[in-house]
Amino acid sequence: MKRILTIQDISCLGKCSTTVALPIISAMGVETVILPTAVLSTHTMFKNFTVKDLTDELIPITEHWKQENFHFDAIYTGYLGSAEEIDIAKKIFDTFGGDDTKIIIDPVMADNGKLYPAFDENYAKLNAGLCGKADIIVPNITEACFMTDTEYKEVYDEAYVKELLDKLAKLGSKIVILTGVSLSDGNTGLYGYDTTTGQYFIYQNERIDASFHGTGDIFASVFTGAITRGLSLEAAGALAADYTKDTIKVTLDNPEKPWYGVDFEATIPLLVQKLSEALHQEA
Ligand code: PXL
Questions:
Q1: Average pLDDT score over the chain
Q2: 34 within 8 A of 233, measured Cβ to Cβ
Q3: What is the pTM of this model?
Q4: Residue 89 near residue 103, CB atoms below 8 Å
Q5: What is the 3-state secondary structure (H, E, C) of 121-157?
Q6: Is a pLDDT exceeding 90 seen at residue 8?
Q7: Residues with CB under 6 A from ligand 1
Q8: Which residues, 6+ apart, have CB-to-CB distance to 211 below 8 Å?
Q9: Secondary structure of residue 20 in the 3-state scheme
Q10: CB-CB contact of 165 with 149 (8 Å)
């Protein structure tokens, strides 16, 4: 069985970061090793959340794994809490990285034109440096703008998206994938650029007019699981985009839907089925 290491916080309640990555990637048939960067009572969109920083634990934990000779087929990073943790993530890439370990970075720090409460522009620059170490990065448009000093636009055209992709590629990652890209009314999805082939790729599906917390983490988790199971970039991107959209739809149908996250638990069986179909199709 393939094995992924995911490095991000545990928001105990809130359906994001580790509490979505672990169930989703496990359901996709990949062993999921977690490295929690912090434990929060909830994610940071709640008021009065508590935080216990775990920076001091990260190196000792990974040194133990190294002594035990563990290998990871992929390392996937999401929400990292501080500049120091970005530095530690780089060290972990150096310790465990190699040709057969894909580094996938979701530089979680911003959305809808704004940085999350815990972060500033310096953090965005450091995240840009981290992205230089990746095989694949999956920022949203806001994160891409902060990392490349580009003006954030709500309304844009394909030229703007390609400019962002080209600037992101200069950070150093082999493959760059922008999420939340809408190029026509009623549609949204991803737009990617593979620097190894010079090819752009695009996948759009129905845009649902609702915004939920944690959907970026769901996209990145499914994408990472699918790449690790051996799907192509295009198929992994389509699976992740469709699953995110289907999950938002199912959540909207729930009269008791929580405000803080989506009902991904209800759609995991669908994900497992679609993954299996995609693997057969590409076999
Ligand atoms: O979903 C991204 C995320 C992860 N972890 C924490 C967050 C957020 C977004 O706000 O606050 C703690």
A1: 97
A2: no
A3: 0.97
A4: no
A5: HHHHHHHHHHHCCCCEECCEHHHHHHHHCCCCCCCCC
A6: yes
A7: 9, 11, 16-17, 40, 43-45, 79, 108, 116, 213-214, 216-217
A8: 112
A9: helix
A10: no
H helices, E strands: number in the chain: 9, 11
pLDDT mean over 36-56: 96
Centre of ligand 1 to C-alpha 15, Å, is 9
Of the given ranges (97-101, 116-120, 148-152, 200-204), which has the lowest mean pLDDT?
Answer: 116-120
**What is residue 68's three-state secondary structure?**
coil
Q: Tell me, what's the pLDDT at 241?
A: 97
How is residue 1 written in tokens? Answer: 């069985």
Ligand 1 midpoint to CA 17 (Å) = 6
Q: Please report the atom of ligand 1 found closest to the CA of residue 16.
A: 1
With helix as H, strand as E and coil as C, how does 210-236 read?
CCCCCHHHHHHHHHHHHHHCCCCHHHH
Question: What is the DSSP-derived secondary structure letter of residue 161?
Answer: H
- Evaluate whether 193 touches 175 at the Cβ level (below 8 Å): yes
Length of the chain in terms of residues written: 283
29 three-class SS: coil
In the prediction, which pLDDT does 219 show? 98
Instruction: Specify the 3-state DSSP secondary structure of 200.
Output: strand
The Cα–Cα gap between 131 and 23 comes to: 25
Cα gap 243→230, rounded to integer Å: 18
265 three-class SS = helix
* Rounded CA separation 126/171 (Å): 11
Helix (H, G, I), strand (E, B) or coil at 103: strand
What distance in Å separates the CA atoms of residue 228 and residue 42, rounded to the nearest whole number?
Answer: 29
